[in-house]
Amino acid sequence: MELILKYFPNLSEEQISRFQLLERLYQDWNLKINVVSRKDIDELYLRHVLHSLAIAKIISFKDDTQIMDVGTGGGFPGIPLAIMFPNCNFHLVDSIAKKLKVVNEVTEGLGLTNVRTTHKRVEEINETYDFIISRAVAVMPTFVHWTKGKIAKKQNNDLKNGILYLKGGDLSEELKNYTTTTIYNLSDFYTEAFFETKKLVHLPQKFTK
Ligand SMILES: C[S@@+](CC[C@H](N)C(=O)[O-])C[C@H]1O[C@@H](n2cnc3c(N)ncnc32)[C@H](O)[C@@H]1O
């Protein structure tokens, strides 16, 4: 938890208690339904929470921003961001029901009212969002194809509506067709070795049509 406060020192009491509660909730639920690897549970705050919150290092979502987390798995990056932005709406989607069971239990345990979940493939979702967030789900061309037409035209935030994708490694080949993409190195935000090769990609709306 100190790790979170190191990079996000201005959290409210409610946010701090929710972030603290996360560890126990994931430990408990992970014993029943394994959605996070053992090693990752031991380093939940580093590998999952802080990693998810990298998105909050480049954007402070305005109130009422609509966000979909595609392939949320156990709730990342959606859950930490829903704690961070309690006045934004998060739609967490995954094609595997048992993962969403954990997400629903954690959401309830935290008392979050800004999270809903849907058990579907993202291709079957017919809504629009200001931002589509994701981590480790598909290569970018596939992801762009799946999420086509799901970004709202109206802009409410300083950053252009679009995809915010957490990725690792060399992205030059995968992103060569998306020329106005911005790639953020997470090592610019965080000093831990885990983030050395990690990136956050922002693909603005016009490339997601
Ligand atoms: C490697 S896991 C990543 C989970 C989570 N985002 C994280 O970073 O911890 C990929 C997840 O994407 C989901 N997924 C893959 N293709 C999908 C699709 N077309 N629609 C919805 N979910 C999908 C899988 O069920 C799985 O839970």
UniProtKB/TrEMBL annotation:
InterPro entries given in the database record: rRNA_ssu_MeTfrase_G, SAM-dependent_MTases_sf
Pfam families reported for this sequence: GidB
Localization of this protein? Cytoplasm
Task: Respond yes or no to whether keyword rRNA processing is given for this record.
Answer: yes
Say which enzyme class the record assigns: transferase
Q: Which Gene3D superfamilies match?
A: Vaccinia Virus protein VP39
User: What is the protein name stated in its UniProt record?
Assistant: Ribosomal RNA small subunit methyltransferase G
Protein's organism? Hyunsoonleella jejuensis
Kindly list the organism's lineage: Bacteria, Pseudomonadati, Bacteroidota, Flavobacteriia, Flavobacteriales
